[in-house]
Amino acid sequence: MFDRLRAQFSNFYDRVTKTELQGKDLDRVLDEFQFSLVENDVAVSVADYVATELKEKLKDVQFARFSDPRGRVKAILSDVLLSVLDRAGRLDIFELVEEKKKAGVPAIIVFVGINGTGKTTSIAKLAHILQRKGRTCILAASDTYRSGSIEQLEEHARRIGVRLIKHQYGADPAAVAFDAVNYARAHGINAVLIDTAGRMQTNQNLLEEMRKIVRVTKPDLTILVVDALTGNDAVEQGKVFSQAVKIDGIILAKLDADVKGGNAISLSYIMGRPVTLVGTGQGYDDLEPFQPQTIVRNLVGGD
What's the CATH number for 3-85? Predict the structure, then answer.
C-alpha cells in the first residue's frame, strides 16, 4: 500500500538532506515534490498546502554534524501530514453506537456513494464487526433499482447472521429504510445500516431519492463510501454528494490495493469531513478505524 508515494517521499528526503535549505534550491526541490504528490492523486490544493508548510519549516534548517538529517526531515513531513489528516477531526462509528445504546435507541446510519465503490460490502463488514463487539444490527436494502442488489445484501446478511429488511424491486427506497428503523426501535436493535442505490454524482433523480431517504429516516450519520483506487475523482464525488446531503464521514474502501495513497491524504482535508473507516482486504474483518498516525508511518517509512 502507498508504494509509489512512499518512494517519492524517500527521494524527497535524499534531495533535501543534500541541498542547501534556502532560496531557489529549496524552491526547486519543493516544486518537484509538489508535482510528485499530484501525480499520486493528492489534490492540487492539498499538495500546495503541504509544499508551503514544508518550505516554512525547512528553510534555513541546519543539520548538525553527525546528526540524523533524514530523520529530522521525516519528522517535519510527518507533522505536516498529520496536520492535513487531522484537519476534519475524528469520527468513531462504534462510539456512536454505544452512545445510542445507552440512550435506548438505535444508531441510524445511511451509506451513499456511486456504483462499484464497495459500499454494500463495507456495510456488511461493519455489521459483522458490530456483532463481534456484541451489538445487534439490521440491514436495510434501500437499493431497489439495481438488478441483483437485494440478493447481494441478502447473501451478506445470511453469511454474517443479521436480519435484512427488504421490499420488492421498484419499491420506494425511503419506505424500506423507514420500515427498518421502525423494526429496530420496536425490537431494541442497536444499529440500522441502510444501503442505498449506487448513483453517479450527476444523476439528479437518484440524488433526490437519496435526499428523501435522509429526510424520512433522520439518520445519526450519513457516510460516503469511496473507492481509494478512483484517484482525484473521489474528491469530486465527495464535493457533489456533500452538496446534495450532509455527509458526516467517509469510508475509504480498497485502501489495501492503493499504491498511490493520495486519496487517503486529500479526502478529509478537501471535504472537511473525517475518514472514519478504511477497507483493508476482502474478509468481513477487513474494515479498520482510520488512524492518521498509522497512515503517516506507512507513508513516511521507517527506514
Answer: 1.20.120.140
